[in-house]
Amino acid sequence: DHHTKIFEHIRQLSDMSTEEYMNSLDPKQLQENLSDGFSEGKSGSFFWISKDKTLIMKSITQSEASLLSSMLPKYHLHLMNNPNTLLSKFFGYYSIRMQEGYTNYFVVMDN
Predict the structure, then answer these.
(1) Rounded distance, CA 42 to CA 26, Å?
(2) pLDDT digits (tens, 9 = 90+) for 78-101
């Protein structure tokens, strides 16, 4: 979990409570829905749509994760100043270190 407070505020700006967010990312729903809602995009990234269709999870590269981290303060400010922006809304950024030693990065976005 990266930049927790900023992403929590971005979700609040989008009228999504922490409870709604966590329910959409419920591990049981993830496991049940993986075969139906998981696909590979043109870029080679993996996408998953939550069972309630409110969120999209997308795998990203380490360089994309670094870019998101570096631009996050300005992105957050833009969302605060432009509530009707057409930019995609990122609701979370996570990394998972695998036993094999590599790290997977992914973002959660508004659908």
Answers:
(1) 27
(2) 999 999 999 999 999 999 898 888
- Beta sheet of 46-49, edge-to-edge order: 38-40, 46-49, 55-60, 103-110, 90-97
Distance, CA of 33 to CA of 85 (rounded, Å) = 30
For the chain, how big is the Rg over CA atoms in Å?
Answer: 14
CA distances from 57 to 18, 78, 101 (A): 16, 22, 22
Q: Distances from the Cα of 64 to the Cαs of 15, 61, 70, in angstroms?
A: 26, 5, 10
**pTM, to two decimals:** 0.82
For residues 87 and 103, the answer to whether their CB atoms sit within 8 Å is no
Cα separations in angstroms, 21 against 27, 61, 70: 12, 23, 24
pLDDT tens for 42-68 read 667 788 888 888 999 999 999 999 999
